[in-house]
Every structure is written in C-alpha cells, then in structure tokens.
Amino acid sequence: MYEPTTAEHIDLLTDEYRALLAELKDPNDLTALRTLLMERAEWSELGSAALIRLARRYGTFVLSNALALAEALEIEDGEAGI
C-alpha cells in the first residue's frame, strides 16, 4: 500500500478542512467547527479543541516549522496523547 509523503498528507488534510469550513455558515463559529471536526474528521473533544487552539495561536509559519522538526525527529504522535 502506498504511504503518502508528509507533503501529500498535508495537502489532503488541507482540502478536507477547507471542505468542512465551506459547510459552516460562519467560519469563525468555533463551536460549530469543533462539532464538525468531531463528527466528520474523527477528532475527540479534547483533540478538536487543541487543534483549533494551535491553529489560531501559532498559525501556519510556526506550525509548518514544528511539523518539519517533528518529521526530522521522527515524532509521529507527540507527548500530548491526543
């Protein structure tokens, strides 16, 4: 089975999350976004809250660098246990 590269995986996730956001009446409605992430993207309540918090707090610049570092360090699942 073909395992997508990290870049391909990020592209797929970005498309998935854009599609979810398109379903929202208000993309700034964080409660509705969390619900969609739990129902459609299989995130837990804790995980969906953490995902939104990280995205809003750090943005793409810091998070892309953190992803690159985690990839280089071969860290797939971090210590948070989400």
Description of the molecule:
This protein has 3 helices and no strands. The chain is globular, with a radius of gyration of 14 Å. It has a domain at 21-72. The mean pLDDT is 92. The protein has 82 residues and is an all-alpha fold.
Keywords:
82 residues, 70% helix
**Assembly context of the chains:** single chain
Strand segment count: 0
The helix content is 55-70%
Helix and strand element order: HHH
Helix run count: 3
Radius of gyration: 14 Å
Mean pLDDT: 92
User: Distance N terminus to C terminus?
Assistant: 26 Å
How would you characterize the largest beta sheet?
Answer: none
Given helix and strand content, the structural type is: mainly alpha
Strand content: under 5%
| Rough outline | globular
Low-confidence spans: pLDDT under 50, at least 5 residues? none
Secondary-structure blueprint:
Blueprint: H1 6-23, H2 30-40, H3 45-72
Structure described in brief:
The chain contains three helices and no strands. With 82 residues, the chain is an all-alpha fold. It has a domain of 52 residues.
